[in-house]
Each structure stands twice: as C-alpha cells, then as structure tokens.
Amino acid sequence: MRPTKESATVSTSQASGVVGEVVPPPLDPTTEILRVEDLTVRFPTDDGMVHAVRGVSYALHPREVLGIVGESGSGKSVSSMAVMGLLPRSAKIGGRVLFRGDDVLRMRPDQQRSLRGRKIGMIFQDAMTALNPVLSIGAQLVEAVRSHEHISHTAALLRAQEMLDLVGIPQAKDRLRSYPHEFSGGMRQRAMIAMAVINRPDVIFADEPTTALDVTVQAQILDTLLAVKDEVDAAIVFITHDLGVIASVADRVLVMYAGKPVETAGVDEIFAEPRMPYTAGLLGSMPTVDLIGERLRPIQGTPPSLINLPTGCPFRPRCPIAIDVCASAEPPLLETDRRGHTAACHRWEDVAGYDDATSMFRVEKGQTVGLVAEDTEDVELPEVRPEELGRDGGTTAGGPA
Length: 401
What we know:
Number of strands: 14
Number of helices: 14
Largest sheet: 8 strands, mixed
Strand content: 15-25%
Helix content: 25-40%
Radius of gyration: 23 Å
CATH topology of the largest domain: Rossmann fold
CATH superfamily of the largest domain: P-loop containing nucleotide triphosphate hydrolases
Strand order of the largest sheet: 6-7-8-3-9-10-12-11
Distance between the termini: 19 Å
C-alpha cells in the first residue's frame, strides 16, 4: 500500500483504533508448544527500576524457528532467561509463560528444574564459560542425562557419544574424555548443542550461539543446529543481533527495541517490506552487494536508558521520520496491512510507501526525502535542515516529518 498526501501523517485508521491491538488467539495445546503472553522483567537497582522486558508475547509451534533480533540491551536474552527460570531472585517477572498449557512462572522451583534441560533446552552464548572447565565433555553430557532420567552411567555415556556424532564431532568416543579447553571454539559450540538436545527437548533457546565464531564455522554450526532440530523434532527460539543469520535460519522474526517488541512478521516480509523504521535501520546497516563502493548507514545515536525511558516512542530520538505524536504516545503493537505482520509505529503506512525503506536512513544534509504515492504526484517530506541534525549527523526528535 502506497500513501497518498492525506496519509503522509499519522495513520488515521491506527489513531482511531480501527486497526485493533493484536490479541493472541486462545491457547491450542495441539498446535502450540510454547506461548509467552505479556512477559515483563524488572530489576531493582540503586539508580532505579530497570525495565528490561516490557510486554513480550509470542507463540511457538512444532519444528518452527522464531528469530528474536535487536541491538545489545534490547531484552532478547533476558526474556529467554525469564522463560527458563534462570534470572536472579531480585528480578520482578510478570505475564504468563505457557508450556503445553502449564504456566511455567507459577511452577514450584523443583517443577521448573524438571522442565529445564528435559523439555526446554538452552544453548548459551559463550560455550567456554558455560562448560565446566574441570569436568570432561563426557561427564557433563552424562550429568545432563542422568539429572532427568534413571539410567545407568554406561547407557548415558552411549547417548552422549550418539549426540557428539549427531553434531559432527569426529572420533566422538575418544572426545568424551576431552576437556573444554581441548576443543576449538566451533567444537565447544557443537558440544553445547549436543548438551541442549541430549534429552530431546520440545523447545531450544539458542542465545547467540554463533557469536565470536568465524563465518565458515558459523555456517557449519547453523547447519548442524537445523539438522539436529529436525532430528529431535524441536522448535527453536534463535536470539541474535545478526540479521544475516536470521535470514538463513528463521521462519518468523520478532524485532525488539528498548525491551519491547516493535515488529513481528515472517522472515521474507521483514526483509522485503519492513513497517517499522528501526527494522529498516537494522536492514540498512547490513552490507549487501548493492552497496559496493558505498558506506554503510548505521542508525545514529544509542538505545535509551531502560531506567529513564523517554516519553512517547523510545525510538523517536533516532527516527528520521518522527513527528509530534511520536513524542507524546508510545505506539502499541498493531497489525499492519498484511495479516500477521505487526508493527509498533505511528507511521507504518508511510514506511510502507518507501520502495526501499532503508533509504530513510541515507538522508544527507540538504537532501529531501520523497514518498512514492499511488497517483502521479510524490509526497515529499520537508528538507532536513542543519539545525535539525545532531552532532553525530543523525536527526533529532521533531526532525523531518
């Protein structure tokens, strides 16, 4: 949908509530493994309350890969740790986490421990620190099995060997006696995958499993993870800041900013037709073949403090198309012009008007941004004036509208 002159402001249908807030459908245990509803996480500190996660909701289906993407500090990892029950006692957690209809947040600690590792597995971000340096790989895999099943040490060791074979570690039987420091970075990450899936869980949280690995090893780890997912019939929540990784593994994408989901859609729609300026900015920050000889265009500025969030839209100070309403009201996550595609933006219809939404972040001093309309006339945005540019070259709140 392309905007006309009348739609080059806040969407009137959105402002009037015609496009309603997204209400999750009733829980269907036959088709959903995991459902997260309005998850919130707060941490009390000496400086004030940190609102780390603010209303995360999603549903996960069998064999599905949900990608959660965002900058560092956006709440991606904290939301997964809250689902796993791995946050410190000081954390204030709200909302519901339904695993096959049972609320994980209302379970006793022993019930949560029974679920972790057996029904819900996790691949941690740094394999070197996640693995115990004084125990062999085999001993740690055996412990992961026998913590949940009453089987012999020999049987658990055989399963550990099978898992190392499954994730592509050569000479698996001999490698069971190795220690983490004797593995390369890629092999340690494979061992972490083996530990996460050794009990054939229904859901796997992968928290940036390819961080600090070179590109070749990254590709191998991703191939291994997807192959293992199909082997054990698991669904994956894949957490990363790398949109290139998301493109290769995810079925659906949830974009987070300042602790809150700001856009959700299928992976193809997110890349082809984003409806939130932040998502467009992330896409524009990626190197592509179209940008050969050109500089990348990062999003100017930094994410807001989660202790003192600004009024209105948290992305407003960094948004090149922010207008007055963006400073007064934080937009809810609403369905856009495509079914199942939601965005938290007052101007998602205008974002849809760009042939290339990433171009809004390529504005230079003195340039004019134009939106292509359905008729023969263009809808042009005001010229970006030097006084509306911050010191770092980014537009400030109340810039071009």
